[in-house]
Design goal:
Layout: H1 5-18, H2 50-59, E1 61-63, E2 74-76, H3 77-86, H4 91-102, H5 107-120, H6 127-132, H7 134-146, H8 193-215, H9 233-238, H10 240-252, H11 255-265, H12 269-274, H13 278-288, H14 291-302, H15 305-313, H16 317-327, H17 331-342, H18 345-349, H19 354-364, H20 371-379, H21 381-385, H22 390-400, H23 403-415, H24 417-421, H25 426-435, H26 439-449, H27 453-457, H28 462-472, H29 475-486, H30 491-496, H31 500-510, H32 514-525, H33 527-530, H34 536-546
Antiparallel strand pairs: 1-2
Helix pairs in contact: 4-7, 10-13, 13-16, 14-17, 15-16, 16-19, 19-22, 20-23, 22-23, 22-25, 25-28, 28-29, 28-31, 31-34, 32-34
């Protein structure tokens, strides 16, 4: 028979409980236990004779020798009957059935708990639950006495654990803490299954606290009425939560609340618009101000050029100023703003934050109202066009300007087209004008750039302008560019150039008829210098693909 430790452990565990006589008190001692195996089992006294063995077996049951393990457990008739009809005995059930009768010495220690539950704690939320677990409490005491743990006994979570209200209700009467100074064989009165409950309570106390905090409404840091914080609104507005509180009052739109807020911040407009928190309040306030309040704000913001400049150049102030430009409704207010901005237009257009204010003004106001700004831009066209932020403003001015202002701006751009085409930022302005596809303007630009197309094609920035001319200009205007490229003495250098090769490819794509054939043939004649060149081979490949079928290669 093969030895199986697992099966032996299960059999030994059953014999441990089924080998007991339920009518006798179990008094374990070192002499009555054999420690050779995983679990202990009771054996008959060593001095008992063979006849006595058979006598006891005849009266109470029988000793059955297990050939596999060598154990000699005692099995009475009742236990044999249970094993015959139900298979193996249930060790947990055996203790639960006889716990009250087998352990009378524990009754004095258990009675205080029972009296507490039955007398003074009927209102306790654990009352009904612990009544149902009375057998389980006795079971835990048995296992603690034997210094073993039950593999089949795992206390479940009480039904009240997830209840954030009832789980924290505890009885503090003196009778609920019996015999704190007495121990049961080394176990405290809080031992046994009460330890399990305490562990559950401790493990879930933090969760209960979190649930209670989440269930409680968030306490407002500020009162519901603005009257309670009068005189402190500027200080409150600098706080993030305070600013949100005031924004909520502005969004409600009550005139009395708006007036209270306005009355305290009207003398702090600069700080209101430039502060990291208060600028959001400013944007909300501008939406709900009446005409009188808006007049005061506009006058305060535009009366001093230095303060207005600092507002527009500030990362927070530029947003507040754009919102102010967006919400003003009267012509007088718009006139005041445009007049003030026209005095600082050049400074703002060349700033990363400030140029957004000028752009927003051009988009929001009528063209006649922004004429002072357009005049300043036209007077400083070249300076603005060559600035990283200014070139964006100039392009927008050309789009939104009236006819007279547009002609003036375009005249300035055309006059400086050659210099602008080679500039890192100015080339975008020239491309923008060419993209408008106004034939007269395009023709004037071509004349300004004529004779310099090959040199411009080998410039990092101007090459984009030449390609724009080839793609957007009419055929009669693009032809001079193609002829200049084909007849250039530096044709090979253009094709091999890191930037010029893109212009040569655009010529191949744009040219038509005889000009295209001329361009293809000239490229293929330079095959020896292009087929292995990193840039030239791109032009050579495009020329081969562009050649009509049926024609032999040169």
């Amino acid at each position: 028979m093969e030895f199986n430790p697992g099966s032996m452990r299960e059999e030994e565990f059953d014999r441990m409980f089924t080998g007991q006589n339920p009518n006798d008190l179990f008094t374990p001692s070192s002499s009555s236990f054999v420690q050779d195996h995983f679990y202990t089992h009771q054996q008959p006294p060593l001095n008992m004779t063979s006849s006595q063995h058979h006598a006891n077996a005849n009266i109470n049951g029988a000793f059955v020798i297990d050939n596999a393990t060598g154990f000699v457990p005692f099995i009475n008739k009742e236990q044999r009957h249970i094993q015959t009809h139900t298979g193996s005995a249930n060790p947990v059930r055996s203790i639960l059935d006889y716990s009250d009768n087998r352990y009378p010495e524990f009754r004095d220690h258990i009675n205080p708990y029972n009296s507490c539950y039955n007398s003074c704690c009927n209102h306790h939320p654990l009352n009904g639950f612990l009544d149902t677990l009375n057998d389980h409490r006795n079971l835990e005491l048995d296992f603690n006495r034997l210094n073993i743990s039950s593999p089949n006994h795992h206390p479940s979570r009480p039904y009240f654990v997830n209840n954030p209200v009832s789980r924290n209700i505890r009885c503090h009467d003196s009778c609920c803490s019996p015999r704190r100074d007495h121990d049961i064989n080394g176990l405290s009165p809080r031992g046994g299954f009460s330890n399990v409950l305490d562990h559950h309570h401790m493990a879930n106390s933090i969760d209960s606290h979190v649930l209670q905090l989440r269930s409680q409404p968030k306490r407002n840091k500020f009162p519901a009425s603005l009257k309670d914080i009068r005189g402190k609104i500027c200080v409150v507005a600098k706080d993030q939560e305070g600013c949100q509180f005031l924004q909520t009052k502005c969004e409600a739109g009550k005139p009395e609340d708006v007036e209270i807020i306005f009355s305290e911040i009207k003398d702090h407009i600069f700080e209101l618009m430039t502060d990291a928190s208060m600028n959001y309040l400013a944007q909300k306030l501008f939406k709900v101000c009446n005409e009188r309040q808006m007049t005061h704000i506009v006058v305060s913001a535009t009366s001093d050029d230095t303060s207005l400049t600092n507002i527009c150049l500030n990362s927070h102030g530029t947003r507040a100023m754009q919102k102010l430009i967006e919400v003003v409704k009267t012509a007088d207010h718009r006139s005041l703003i445009v007049s003030a901005l026209s005095r600082i237009t050049l400074t703002l257009t060349k700033n990363t934050n400030g140029h957004h204010v000028i752009q927003h003004c051009l988009k929001s106001f009528h063209v006649d109202e922004v004429q002072p700004i357009l005049n300043v831009v036209a007077d400083n066209c070249l300076d603005i066009a060559t600035d990283k932020s200014g070139c964006c403003v100039l392009q927008l001015c050309v789009l939104h300007a009236d006819e007279a202002s547009k002609q003036r701006l375009m005249s300035e751009i055309i006059e400086n087209a050659l210099d602008l085409a080679e500039h890192p930022y100015g080339n975008y302005v020239v491309q923008h004008i060419l993209g408008m596809q106004i034939p007269e303007v395009t023709a004037h630009i071509m004349k300004k750039l004529a004779g310099n197309f090959v040199n411009l094609a080998m410039n990092k920035y101007a090459s984009n302008v030449v390609e724009k001319c080839l793609k957007d200009a009419p055929d009669d205007q693009s032809t001079p560019i193609i002829r200049e490229v084909i007849n250039s003495p530096n044709f090979l250098g253009l094709i091999q150039h890191p930037f010029g090769n893109y212009v040569a490819q655009s010529v191949l794509q744009t040219a038509k008829g005889s000009l295209k054939d001329m361009m293809i043939n000239k490229v293929q004649k330079e095959y020896a210098y292009l087929h292995s060149h990193p840039h030239g081979k791109r032009v050579l490949a495009l020329a081969r693909n562009s050649k009509p079928r049926g024609l032999s290669s040169a």
